[in-house]
Amino acid sequence: MRYRLFFMKIGILPLGEITPDLLGGLQQGLVKTFPDTACMIIKKVLPVPKLAFDKKRNQYSSSVILNEIRAYASKHEKLHGVLGVVDVDIYVPELNYVFGEAYTPGKAALISLWRLKPEFYGENAGPDVFVSRALKESIHELGHTLGLPHCARSLCVMHFSNSIFDTDKKQSLLCDQCYLQAALAISNLGKQP
Ligand SMILES: [Zn+2]
Ligand SMILES: [Zn+2]
C-alpha cells in the first residue's frame, strides 16, 4: 500500500482591509496548531457585503458574511476550508456580538477583529496580544468546520468565549481530546476522492 502525502489546505480570505502582519500571524499559527495543514493568504480582498449591515444595530450580520465566504469556498474546491477575516462588528440575532461563526462541519469560517483589539477595551497591550486573540478565535472557528463542538475545558481553544476574558484565559491550543478529533477529521478529508 502506498501512502500519499495529504495536507488540509486552508485559505485566509480578507474581507475589507486587514493588515499583513495580522494575516501572517494567523497563517503561521494555524499551520502550527493543526496537523498536516497548509495555509495560504488569499490575495484577492473581497468587500464586506453591504447587505450584511444592520442600521438599527449598527453591526454586520455574521451569517450574511459567512454565506459569502461559503460561496467563495464552493468556487475554490482545492481549499478544504476558508477563514474569512473582517474588521467590523458582527452579530447573530440572539447575541449582542460574536467573535466569529462557522459551519459545523463545513468549509467556511469567519472571525471579526473588531472586539479583539486591545484599544477596544482601552487596554495598552501590544500587537502580540491582538494576534494571539485573533489566532485563538481562528483556530476555534476552523475547529468547528472540522466538526468539533464546544469543549468543557476552559483552557482549550474550543471552549466558548462569552467575552474577551474567556478568550484571554484559554490557550491557543486544542486539548488532547479536541486535537485527536481534529486530526481524525483532517485525515478523513484526505480519504475523500
Ligand atoms: Zn464556538
Ligand atoms: Zn478541548
| Termini Cα gap | 17 Å
Strand count: 8
Spatial strand arrangement across the major sheet: 2-1-5-8-7
From the alpha carbons, calculate the radius of gyration and give it in angstroms. Answer: 16 Å
Hetero groups bound? zinc ion
Binned strand content: 15-25%
SS summary, helix count? 5
Helix content: 25-40%
Q: Structural class per helix/strand content?
A: alpha/beta
Main pleated sheet: 5 strands, mixed
What string, H for helix and E for strand, traces the elements in order? Answer: EHEEEHEEEEHHH
Please describe what this structure looks like.
With 193 residues, the protein is of the alpha/beta class. Helices cover 36% and strands 17% of the residues. The protein has five helices and eight strands. It has helices at 20-33, 62-75, 127-145, 164-169, 176-191, and strands at residues 8-14, 37-41, 53-54, 59-61, 81-86, 90-91, 100-102, 108-112. α1 packs across α3. The chain is globular, with a radius of gyration of 16 Å. The model has no long low-confidence stretch (mean pLDDT 96). The structure holds zinc ion (2 copies). One zinc ion (ZN) is lined by residues 151, 153, 156, 158, 174-175, 177-178.
